[in-house]
Amino acid sequence: MKTWLPPFRVELELHGKDFGDFIHGPGNSLLLSERMTEAYLKQEFTGLVGFEPVDVVRIRGKRKGSKQEALPRYHVATPCFSHAAVEVARSLLRYSEPVTCGECRSAGLQSVHGFALDAGTWQGEDVFRARGMPGKNLVSGRFATFVAHAEFTNIQLIPIEEYVRDPLRLGPPASGATGAS
Fold first, then answer.
1. What is residue 69's predicted lDDT score, i.e. its pLDDT?
2. How far is it, in rounded angstroms, from Cα 52 to Cα 136?
3. Is 46 buried (19+), middle (13-18) or exposed (0-12) by CB count in 10 A?
4. HSE of 110 in the Cβ direction (CA atoms, 13 Å)?
5. DSSP symbol at 133
6. Sequence-distant (≥ 6) Cβ neighbours of residue 107 within 8 angstroms
7. Cβ(93)–Cβ(178) below 8 Å
8. What's residue 26's pLDDT?
9. Contacting residues for 26 by C-beta, under 8 A, at least 6 apart
10. Torsion of CA 36, 140, 129, 181, to 10 degrees
11. Going by fewer Cβ within 10 Å, which terminus of the chain is more open, N or C?
């Protein structure tokens, strides 16, 4: 995926009556409301980079009578690629082929039924992407507590041991990570 470059212009689709504090943007980008951006920066969290302003050029699904003033300002930020890595032996992962690259750890990943990080690889980032878990943003416990206490909207955090992604409905592996099924 190519990096999203300025100018940062977006079309939003409104579901419900209020705009969320957190939106998945194009590629690896995240859109954070100004309220969430300011709180994140004040807490001196790590892992997100950028925080450039976004121009909302269109809103789809806007209901009649809703007020344009309710639209928060958004900023684009990108989670860092961390040195943190999935610990395959302690995770419930199903692969179509054996993992042969110790760096990416994700070739042929078919399903996830909970996972763990290799304790020696995570360097304490608060929002990050881990090797072996493509396309997923991970957060620290400190960040999860922050989100819950601030009551940010449109963000759902799932403990990694409870995270399930199984698009082919293969079910969890019999025990631990498996190779080709």
1. 54
2. 22
3. middle
4. 16
5. S
6. 95, 97, 99, 100, 101
7. yes
8. 84
9. 4
10. -130
11. N
Distance of CA 15 to the CA centre of its chain: 20
pLDDT tens series, the chain, 181 aa: 678 888 999 888 888 778 899 999 888 899 999 999 999 999 999 999 999 999 998 888 765 555 555 788 999 999 999 999 999 889 999 998 888 887 877 778 899 999 999 989 999 999 999 999 988 999 999 999 999 999 999 999 999 999 999 999 999 887 655 554 4
| Owner of token pair 């090797």 | 131
- What's the CA gap between 181 and 175, in Å, rounded? 13
* 97-124 residues labelled b (16+ CB within 10 A) or e (exposed): eebeeeeebbeebbbbbbbebbeeebee
Q: Which two tokens stand for residue 161?
A: 């041991």
Residue 21: other Cβ atoms inside 10 A: 22
According to DSSP, the residues that pair with 53 across neighbouring strands are 75
